[in-house]
Amino acid sequence: GGLSAIAATAGSVQQASAATAAVSGKMEIKKSVCTHCSVGCTVIAEVSDGVWLGQEPGWDSPFNLGAHCAKGASVREHAHGERRLKYPMKKVGGEWQRISWEQAINEIGDKMTAIRDTSGPDSVYWLGSAKHSNEQAYLFRKFAAYWGTNNVDHQARICHSTTVAGVANTWGYGAMTNSYNDIHKSKAIFIIGGNPAEAHPVSLQHLLKSKEENNAPLIVCDPRFTRTAAHADEYVRMRPGSDVALVWGILYHIFENGWEDEEFIRTRVWGMDEIRKEVANWTPDEVERVTGVPGEQLQRVARTLANNRPGTVIWCMGGTQHTNGNNNTRAYCILQLALGNMGTAGGGTNIFRGHDNVQGATDLGVLADTLPGYYGLSDGSWAHWARVWDEELEWLQSRFASWTDGAGEEQKMINLTGIPVSRWIDGVLEDRENLEQPDNTKAMVLWGHAPNSQTRQKEMKTAMEKLDLLVVVDPYPTVSAVLHDRTEDTYLLPACTQFETSGSVTASNRSLQWREKVVEPLFESLPDHTILYKFAKKFGFEDRMFRNIEVNGEEPLVEDLTREFNKGMWTIGYTGQSPERMKMHMQNQHTFDKTTLRAVGGPADGDYYGMPWPCWGTPEMNHPGTANLYDMSLPVAEGGLTFRARFGVERDGENLLAEGVYSKGSEIKDGYPEFTMQMLMDLGWDGDLTAEERQSIEAVAGYEAPENADDGQEEVGETSQQGEMDSDYVAQVGGINWKTDLSGGIQRVAIEHGCAPFGNAKARCVVWTFPDPVPKHREPLYSNRRDLVADYPTYDDKTFWRVPTLYASIQKNDFSQEFPIILTSGRLVEYEGGGDETRSNPWLAELQQNMFIEINTRDANNLGVRDGADVWVEGPEGGKIKVMAMVTERVGEGVAFMPFHFGGHMEGESLRGKYPDGADPIVLGESTNTVQTYGYDSVTQMQETKATLCKIMPA
After folding, report:
1. CA nearest 952: which of 892, 866, 889?
2. Is the CB of residue 826 less than 8 Å from the CB of residue 932?
3. CATH class name, domain 2-79
4. Who contacts 394 (Cβ-Cβ below 8 Å, separation ≥6)?
5. Which residues contact 129 (CB under 8 A, 6 or more apart)?
6. Deepest of 181, 198, 294, 480, by most Cβ within 10 A of its Cβ?
């Protein structure tokens, strides 16, 4: 157990403490950002003689306001953690052996080159990280492009990919619309599938301020009575996996009583009539049958939301990690559209992201289905980024393989979505003929990833053992070092922490903050961007990849990486946040209003803190950023915005553009499409372009349009970015648009005339390209309600994103008799993600020492389980784990809960002896994902971890 482990490591804890007294000299103050959740808390580091001595929370930070949670307060221990990976290692005859960086890069590079020669570039999978800075994430995606594969992804796939898909397809951008601080203005707070008190603890102060100042009712919908629910005015206990039914149950009462905002719907929403038809089927009795929530309670919830506007909707992974997660997130959005709560302070969909830079890594394109800025994978998308990189498009294309599909047609892999991280094990284990790529995955690079955060752990063990090469890049060995029984061709490379380098990070509200380097890299660890440079050099494309980036020694200049993505990410406005502006914001945090986030005087006067994207145009344009998306009460130049015209201008003869409404100061007094050079010419505004801007636009127009250019309507993938290039690279200047004009001139001129560069459209309730155009309730693959499976079945099996994906063939099997209890999972306040970092931290390890399962009192008594006793938990796919029972009323009858932060045990056996000496976490435990089962979202391949089945037995 944990106590004995802590006792055994007393020496290292004392050594860490001794570091605080061993130095003297001038004290320096460095500002960084916490490396855990997405709130973006500032960390004040006190450094003397290169040693990090003390830590304080950022008292001036608008986000944490002088607060830290347990994890945030302990990050100094992470930075000088004695249990970190200290030098490169490899397995030789089953034992870990220390090697040099030169040997590691050469051996790994040679093995990868051999795999590339025999199986193609797609057989090496590059798994990135939400722990990378924006600059490192950008470089990682660029590296994968230069290697020649779209088999690249990161944790966003398994946390909020269904959010991005659902939300982007509703109103244009797939991100948090407002901010933690804006919740101060909410008149009601509706949380579904989220537990901020434990997952985002510092955010709770913003919610409580709304309760205190506005008397805002807090409604919490969750299968568990969480610490967040303890603050609720109304707690709604729901059956796991029934989110759509619950939201439709609320809308039933809203429509029945005429509480919807009809004018908002008429002018800014398309497709609500189709929602009304679906909602009419969800009578209070049917909703209670599916969700377990009484009709009178949902009527009370509906009345509360209707009487307290604007209200905000908050969700996290409780709503996203389902086979129909994209339906859930769209339903949440539609609820806000019906109430007219969008585009206003105090309203919006406040989506709490999980990791410190999962928003940024998503934006920077560490995804299987897009390039940085959600440009997609079309030829036009690649042409755009080739221009940004000053690269030959033909050379980039030559780096990728081709594949002959079942119809005998050759497919270019450069344009095909890669295998998502949720399915990488199938890339290894699936029969080759069933994969839509030339060969199986042969090498896996796990870079800043906790594999125990993924389902199907037993199959993952098999996949790891089948690989020709396994490479782990991380400050810690992670479960990747011990899950398998490999004896050779396995490498551990020590990356330094984010406190040992600098760069930007994007908080959940889209604000960018700059981290200062606190200390130099410890041990033999290196920054991630340095390691990427070493690999690029080994593969011989470093001169091309870094042609516009200064490299000192082997470390690329971080600021040059920022400036390079500033040059290309026009789609989401990652262009105005220069390194200089970000650093200036960090130095002047005290000048920003703690509710509106806008600077009052000082050098950043008028800016919103962190310049939340979109921050339009070039840095010289000084756009302030956009605090609240889609707010038409402000001019676009001051952070106002419309809904994005992303889905065409009409559908089946119906207008998709806004009707008679527009942002303040707009010279176009109605809806309008996205801006192109042709549109500027038609309006007579092209004369406002400078000579340099016009010259740049004409240079872009010189690219010949690809034969298979997208029409802009097909939508695929997590971000459902349809290539973003519908009118790009045609043979005339008029086709160049706001997304591909590298000068920023089209954006600048549109905004000068009061218009949003991306148009002014309606949000849409119906996504005609999704499996369910109108969100529908579908039962989980493993459901113990066979009556509901008959009425609300899952999808048919299908192949997408290169791998066969099962639905109906699993759901048809009835496991409910042998596995009667619904199993769900979630977070603890003490740990983060897979937990390797936080369980290695003595401050946190002391707080939570045992993996456990929450079992309802009645279930425990029926099973003969006592509180604190060990139990076996077994899933229908054969995985089983041994954990401690926590008998509690937090979970309802028939439901059990486990946290997902543990690893290092496998089916009752400790793996501690398999870690490198001194690098084993203090606390080990079973992973809930050994028991969690197969199941993937129909749009994004999100894993299902919130609603499966299990049985529980005394150990």
Report:
1. 866
2. no
3. alpha beta
4. none
5. 137, 140, 154, 155, 361, 366, 447, 448, 449, 528
6. 480
Query: Over the stretch 553-585, which tens digit does the pLDDT of each residue have?
Result: 999 999 999 999 999 999 999 999 999 999 999
Q: Which of 635, 637, 642 is nearest to 617 (CA)?
A: 637
Burial class (CB in 10 A: 0-12, 13-18, 19+), 817: exposed
| HSE, side-chain direction, 13 A CA sphere, residue 79 | 29
- Return the SS3 of 246: helix
| Cα–Cα distance, 632 to 485 (Å, whole number) | 58
Is 444:126 a contact under the CB 8 Å cutoff? no
Amino acid sitting at position 235: Y
Residue 713 banded pLDDT, cuts 50, 70, 90: very low
Prior bond of 310 cis (ω within 30°): yes
- Give the three-class secondary structure for 428: helix
Which residue ranges make up each domain of the chain?
2-79, 104-159+358-566, 165-351, 786-954
Tokens of 611: 């310049």
Tens digit of pLDDT for each residue in 852-910? 999 999 999 999 999 999 999 999 999 999 999 999 999 999 999 999 999 999 999 99
Domain spanning 165-351, CATH class? alpha beta
d(CA 738, CA 888): 55
Q: Which CATH architecture has domain 104-159+358-566?
A: 3-Layer(aba) Sandwich (3.40)
Look at the alpha carbons of 189, 194, 198, 199 in this order and tell me if their dihedral is positive or negative: negative
Nearest Cα residue to 66 out of 74, 75, 57? 57
The pTM assigned to this predicted structure is 0.95
pLDDT band at 734 (very low <50, low <70, confident <90, very high): confident
